Amino acid sequence: MANGWSLVIGLIIIVVASVLAWVFSPKGENQTLFRSTLILSFVSCYLMWAIVFMAQWHPLITPKRSNIRPERVPQ
Question: What is its main location (predicted)?
């Protein structure tokens, strides 16, 4: 079962990947573009994953029972 440490571990992995992309990016004319693309891609993927993870972990809407007829649901 996933817990809150998944977010922290994922963040650490993204920071390490971003530092590696910064250090080992090929030198040359497009170095800044290459670095920015890699780091922004890593961060965007992490944010999307973290938002979906949190939405599933703490849903805003509670699930309804599917085995109750609508006319029998108390108001």
Answer: membrane
Helix (H) or strand (E) holding 35: helix 31-57
Domain count, the chain: 1
- Does some domain include residue 39? yes
Full-model pTM = 0.74
- pLDDT, tens digit, 9 for 90 and up, residues 31-58: 999 999 999 999 999 999 999 999 888 8
Contacts of 49 (CB under 8 A, 6+ apart): 10
User: Using CA atoms, how far apart are residues 5 and 22, in angstroms rounded to an integer?
Assistant: 26
C-alpha dihedral, 17 to 39 to 54 to 52, nearest 10°: -110
- 58: amino acid identity, one letter: H
End-to-end CA distance of the chain: 35
Distance CA 75, CA 69 (A): 13
